[in-house]
TrEMBL record:
Residues 3-169 form the Cobalamin adenosyltransferase-like domain. Belongs to the Cob(I)alamin adenosyltransferase family. It comes from Limosilactobacillus walteri. InterPro entries: CblAdoTrfase-like, CblAdoTrfase-like_sf, PduO-typ. This is Corrinoid adenosyltransferase.
Length: 188
């Protein structure tokens, strides 16, 4: 099987069900953002060290789930030969449990925090912003066509997860979060 199809030479790609779309189509944009997020998580996993090793399997599981999300975003709603794979109930509940666990372990904050800290935490904050961009692309697609809305729910929760796990990664590596301060406090 060849990797190249030459459809892309004309700015097009084939989605699940063999329909050909332009690469600028809202559907292609949506699953492309999820693919970028999945790649970023792979990079993020490469930053895991001894103190944060407990996060590796969890991030891999998220990558697996994102493949199912991408499948469903690349599949038109009524394609009977390719039913949706993603069901939000268990994965979303699992993310919520992880968010609650991490939130309980880190110091409480009453201000915004700046993205950053360790390399791993910083990368997790970038994952959060890529997730938010993917969510916006999914909403654009949803405004034009029916989608598996379970994917949108999961992606929405996933950005919260990345915020919580970034803080936890800093905590594991004994790196304090940097609190936001209003510029009026400095430049008055």
């Amino acid at each position: 099987m060849r990797i190249y199809t030459k459809n892309g030479d004309q700015g097009q790609t084939r989605i699940i069900g063999k329909k050909i779309l332009y690469k600028s189509d809202a559907r292609v944009e949506a699953y492309g953002e999820v693919d970028e997020l999945n790649s970023w998580i792979g990079y993020t996993r490469s930053l895991i060290g001894n103190q944060t090793n407990e996060l590796s399997a969890e991030l891999e599981e998220i990558q697996q789930l994102l493949f199912d999300c991408g499948h469903d975003l690349a599949t038109p709603k009524n394609d009977e030969r390719h039913p949706f794979k993603f069901d939000k109930a268990k994965p979303t509940t699992w993310l919520e449990e992880r968010i609650d666990t991490y939130t309980e372990k880190v110091p409480t904050v009453k201000k915004f925090i700046l993205p950053g800290g360790t390399q791993l935490a910083s990368s997790l904050h970038v994952a959060r912003t890529i997730t938010r961009r993917a969510e916006r692309r999914i909403v654009l697609l949803m405004q034009k066509e029916e989608i598996n809305v379970d994917v949108l729910t999961f992606i929405n929760r996933l950005s919260d997860y990345f915020f919580a796990v970034a803080r936890y990664a800093n905590y594991l590596e004994q790196q304090q979060d940097t609190l936001y301060r209003n510029s009026k406090d400095v430049f008055h």
